[in-house]
Structure formats: C-alpha cells, structure tokens
Design goal:
single chain, six-stranded parallel beta sheet, two-stranded antiparallel sheet
Length: 227
C-alpha cells in the first residue's frame, strides 16, 4: 500500500524516535527510593509512559496505570523526579533501529519534519540534541509549548499553522493511542510504529492508516523519491 505524499510530517519522540524508558525507569526508581518507597522496575514503567511525566509519577506512586496518588505525596514526589530525570534524560536512552536512516531519507526526499511530543521542553531539546537528531526538525512542539497536549489536536494544528500547511497535507507518525486520537481529531493521516509505548495494547487496534516496524520504511510508503 501507499499513502499520499504529505507536505509536512510530525513525529512523536518517546516510543517512536527514542526508547527513553531506561532513563525514565532509573529516575522513577531513584525517586521511589528517595521517598522510602518500593522500586517499580523497568517493565512497569514501560507500561506507564506516554502521557507526560506528571502522569508517570502518579502511576508510579499508585503502582497502577489508572491510579491517582495522594496529593501531598505527589507534591513531594514530582520535584524529586524532575531533578533526577533532568540529570538522566539521555544517558541510557537510545534511538530505535532505523530512526537515523529514516530521518535522513525523509529529509533527502524533501519532507518538512517536526517533532511533537508530550515531554516537557526542558527534557525534549536535550534528548534530541544528545541523540544527534535535533537539527532534523524545522520545529519542535513540546508538552508545555501549549496549554493542551496530545491526545488533544492542538499541538498538531499549531505545528501545521507554524509551517503553513493544512491538516489534509499533513502526516503524524507515532506509537500510541494518544497519537492516533490527536491525528484523527486534527484531520491528519496517521502512521504508527509497531514498537513503542501503548500501555501493552496492539496499536493496530486503534486503526491507524499504516503500521511500520522501522522508520526507514516510511519513505517507500509515501512513494518518496530522492532527487
């Protein structure tokens, strides 16, 4: 199958470009230890990520995907997590296989690229920079750029407006239900990666336009030709 060639491609960060769970899990466990609470471990954290660090801390404290922590405990815990994660944003995180090649191929084919993530800017920009891919993007929309974040369509529509394209000319690439919901609400097409963070559910169940195993397969899906 092929998809129409878009004028703009927005790409999610955590779970799509970068496996950031090792650093997030390290920071969660260090936070829990600092609070005198049990460590949660990487498998649990891998199931909890994808909705911003505030929700991750809530889930870690409650030890549940849908949990809500005691407000007082959360107020103590969040600054601890933020301090630890600020020092451990990219030490253990890695680009997924095919990401660098995929970004190079999309750039060579003339696509305008943006990164849209729910991660706060203070973590997003260092992570992209440390992994050597910040310069691939014409713009970056972080989780605190606007008042609303994915699955709200606002970040996607903001990016389209910034780059002067319409939603019908735009493609979102992500890994989660939030990405699919945001794209559909914004009027974007949506391609998802088969790996990543979707709380243990198969992303195919969300009905994206296509599912890929590697980002470097995307140019062929879009019938991109390198000049």
């Amino acid at each position: 199958m092929f998809l129409p060639r878009p004028r703009m491609i927005l790409i999610d960060l955590d779970g799509t470009l970068v496996d950031s769970v090792p650093d997030l899990a390290f920071s969660v466990d260090a936070m829990m230890e600092a609070l005198g609470l049990p460590r949660r471990g990487e498998p649990a954290v891998r199931n909890w990520v994808g909705n911003g660090v505030e929700r991750l801390v809530q889930r870690a404290l409650a030890n549940d995907l849908d949990g809500e922590a005691d407000p007082g405990l959360f107020a103590r815990a969040l600054p601890v997590f933020m301090r630890i994660y600020r020092e451990n944003t990219s030490q253990r995180s890695r680009l997924y296989p095919g990401v660098r090649e995929g970004l190079d191929g999309l750039q060579a084919a003339g696509f305008r690229l943006g990164c849209v993530t729910n991660k706060a800017e203070q973590f997003t920009l260092p992570l992209l920079r440390d992994k050597g891919i910040l310069d691939r993007f014409a713009l970056v929309v972080s989780g605190d750029t606007l008042e609303r974040k994915k699955p709200d369509p606002a970040p996607l529509l903001h990016a389209a407006a910034q780059l002067g394209v319409t939603p019908a000319e735009s493609l979102m690439v992500g890994d989660s239900r939030s990405d699919v919901k945001a794209a559909r609400a914004a009027g974007f097409r949506i391609v998802c990666m088969s790996y990543g963070y979707n709380h243990g559910a198969d992303i195919r169940d969300e009905g994206p336009d296509a599912v890929l195993d590697r980002l470097d397969a995307l140019p062929a899906l879009l019938q991109a030709e390198v000049a």
